Amino acid sequence: MRRAGLGEGGLPPGHYSYANSGYSSFEEENDRLTESLRTKVTAIKSLSIAIGHEVKHQNKMLADMDSEFDSTTGFLSKTMGRLKVLSRGSQAKLPALHDAFLLLCLLLSFMDH
Q1: Are the CB atoms for 13 and 7 separated by under 8 Å?
Q2: Contacts (Cβ under 8 Å, ≥6 apart) of 103
Q3: How far apart are CA 47 and CA 39, in angstroms?
Q4: What stretch of H or E contains 90?
Q5: Residue 85 half-sphere exposure toward CB, CA atoms < 13 A
Q6: Mean per-residue pLDDT for 96-104?
């Protein structure tokens, strides 16, 4: 049913529907921007997953290093205890003390590298 003074679709003469007014160009632009955003979100997601894997790997390496340092600390503590015992002994044990000291220095320099 048409009313007086209204054109097709009930719009006043001179007005156009959305399809005729450029609505489709806005929709195409929105589709293009949506696809661009989807691509960026996918890239960020992939990067986040890669960072997560790297963090897990680094944490494992740190835990292994911590374990190794604990082991080395225990070994060095025992060595220092033995050096104290040797230093309290007679002068006949001096060469053994010297060798133990050189071994300790070697271990310490190895830990620095």
Answers
A1: yes
A2: 79
A3: 12
A4: none
A5: 7
A6: 77
